[in-house]
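Q: What does the assembly look like in three dimensions?
Context provided by user:
Components: two
Sequences:
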Amino acid sequence: MRKKFSIFILLIVILSMILSACSNSTQQSGDKKGKQKSKGRYIEHDIEMPKLEKDETVVKIVENKEHQLELYTYIAKETTKYNCYLLKEDDSWEKTSLDWLNNSKTSEMIMVDICLGQDGSYYACLQNISGEQKANIIKKTNEGTGQFLDMACLNESTNVGEYNTYKIPSKINVLKNGNFIFNMKESAQDSSLVIFNQKGEKIDEVVTINPNSFSVSGNCVYLINQDKKVVSYNTETKNNDQILDFDGVIDSLQLFTKDNGNVIGVGPDGIHCYSKDLSLWEKVVEGSSNSLGMPSMDVKGTVVKDGEQDVYYVAFSEVALLGIQDGIQKIKKYVYDKDASSIPEKEITVFSMEENKTIRQAIAIYQTKNTDVKINYVVANSKEGGVDSDYIRTLNTELFTGNGADILILDGLPIDSYIEKGVLTDLSDIINPLIDSGKLLSNLNDSFTKDGKKYQFPARISIPVVAGNDEIVNTNVNLQKIVDYINKNNNAPIMKKISSEALLKGYMPLNIDTILKDGSLDEKALKNFLENLKTLNDNISKDNLCPVDEDDTDLYAVENSRRFASMGNPYTMLYTKVNSVEGMMSLNGLKQKQNMTYSSLNESFIPSAMVGMNNSSKEAETAKDFIKFLFSDEIQKLNMNDGFPVLESSLKQWFQEESKMMSFGTWDDDDNLINGEMPNEEEKVKFLTLIKKCKKSVVKNEALYKLIIDSARSYLDGEKNIDQTVADISQKVTVYLTE
Amino acid sequence: MKKIQKREFTAWLFLLPSFVGTLIFTLIPFGDVIRRSFLDAMGNQFVGVLNYKNVLQNGAFQLAIKNTARFVVTCIPLLLLLSLILCILIVGRKKHGDFFKATYLFPMAIPVASVVLLWRVIFDKSGLINEFLLSFNMQPVDFMNTSKAFYVLVFSYIWKNTGYDMVLWLAGLNGIPTSLYEAASIDGANGWQKFKYITLPGLRSTLYITLVLSLINSFKVFREVYLVAGDYPNNSIYMLQHLFNNWFLSMDIQKMSAAAVMLAVTFLLLILLLSWLEKRWEGDYKKKRRLTHKNENI
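A: Here is the predicted structure of the complete assembly.
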């Protein structure tokens, strides 16, 4: 009996352990205790840039032998001048002239890169800007003078027409044995690092996924290999000495090495340190809460100051529109603060189906301003191979249990269901004051008001446009009129060939109101819509100018106008969407070269970064504060190339600001230059007026569209007849609507 | 008395882990489902029987119930009959019996994804069957997007489950004493008479368990349909699980809960009815056997 009793007691203990482990409340209270106790984390600080002269370009930050940070610049005027700024203990800068570089030989060059080699000497890579544009490597001698190195690889030229082109290394470094390692891409696809001896003769080549991310230690090179692993490549044995398993975001990781052999990896998710002794990566600085996590920031260099707790200096280039970079613009210092709570007191979660640059940027900026708040950004589709409906199911389960994300980015989510079921909070107290005071674009108001309440509002909008001759533009995307135009013009292809799915996806939102009337399907209207679309599809399918990309499912892709402009084609119609003032350039190109005009699609706009707030949020105040921040000028004025701002003042600022881009140019198949220029004032005013006129949101009901598109696609592709298709769609839509 | 109490205590002790598991993972969640069926979608407001009323009036629910019932009524008798015939045929074979047993069980071992691929290869508009029809200048049939999809589903269910049911029948057959058949042979009974008077009555309890298991398996056919035809298949194969799946996506958990409760109650009643029938049948059979035995003794 005693034995059985003891078994019983043991079973009870096991069960109670299992149950207690499952308990949510215990864990939370434990977390809270942890929050109260644990202190210490890295905090980001701004380092004020030195006072630079006009046109002075910052090239690189370098750690000198005394472990101080040096900033290298040049000013390319009549004669180029090279400078170095030394960061002192009090974070002030001391300017010194680079005498070893400033001489008559280098006066017509610019600096591409500079490094302190493993042999203890400085090496600079300068490029001629007049005459033959070749690169030169200059070594700082012990006497403090500059010595031009005669490197065969830099003298090799390729003859293109009248010109000789030379290979220019974009990043250089020098190994302990004096050999050079260059990122010297021969083409955009080339992703290898080349090792040269001191005469400039190629002795080895290493393939990497990111040729700009490598660092040297002794005679080893740390790089990211094709298997997306950080490896230490020994240039003497030509083998990998070590494979450093890294589980963070590796694609944009920048590698740096320390004197003690430790490796630093700096990426959007933070600063990681690989300890040689422990053979382990440790994330020392969390990236999502500071500049590291901002999509607009590109890491250009890192310097680590050793100490009880290392201090990290990271140089950033702010990625301007369309990937144009202007050198280093910001330097941030990451210092360990032992008094800062290791986990911020407040924590909210933002959920979105797809990555959104504006949201990510806002999250990072908000956290730098509110160090007591941690915002987790959960992107459902961040990993490949997922299914949207599975992500929604998971999210719904969390929402049912009251544990869902505090803020929902509603793009691609069943918004109407969420509103109907009371999942979303009324955001009127945030949105209405902005509308009443005229700060938010008033034309967007009606589309997002339901029963006098605002459960959702977009942080960005894009304007879909149709471009073509006057007749096409005047059809106002009425399919029947477009079909009439096709018939009138002897059925000549009017538009670039695109997949039937893209056609359906593009036209469905514009015609859904006629297809669905009073909550039921109008079969006659559906038949008419599909027949007209089939005529258009047949018309464009006759074109053999370029193959159809089945993955290209966006009729309004931003790139359309550029592609269109560069193809020297006979088309008369084009759909695209405009995301920014710069995005108007390609439309301007079309207008000038091909005498096209453009107009909005029935005064509609495409909303994105649609914000909603979970009614069950446990940090409602913080969540609302973040939403307010999202609609503040500070965020709205940022141009992340993902849509226009919805704040009137920011929108005006966008149109008034002088763009860094002045024009774009590309060549068509016959080598004709197609270019577009920035819109002039008149054009800007016209487009701004057009944006303010757009009142109709392109409504997206993914579930409904999917079931119509799945059935209609085979009709457009000629596999099914119209009656079968309509019957098929009708029965499915009826079931959907009755559900 | 004390000994009986001890034995009961030991039995409960052994049952406890499974019972706790069932309680945590089935009974308590189902209790929550019952609770939610009387509340609004987010569980904030009591709505009485409104959800039940809405579900019963819902066209999609009616369609799904009709299809599911039609599927069950068509498939289960067919499956039971076919598997029983195969079972008897296999028992009759002394040679190669094991080979056939393994062969019929083979479909159960094929993963769903492979089954779906197989479906597509066979039943697609440009699949094997249609290629075959075209070679005879016959019109191709769109199996999956017409009402013929139902028969494809029936075929698939039977193909996959016949082997399993056959094994259940085999277990039942092995439980019938061979002495009964020997005695019947001596009495001059032919094969049909042996089947009618010995095999069929002896398989009554197996029938009950096979029926219940087949019923449960019939609900698992959704996976194949979903992978082939998605959220909205042809109306003829739109099952309850499609509806539940879509309701979950649109957060209609209140409707799901009400429908689930109704379904569970229906199942419970059905199983209770079958159980009662089985007991009654078994009772009659034993009674008859006792009477026969008595008469023989007299």
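Follow-up: The domain at 61-270 of chain B is CATH 1.10.3720.10 (MetI-like fold).
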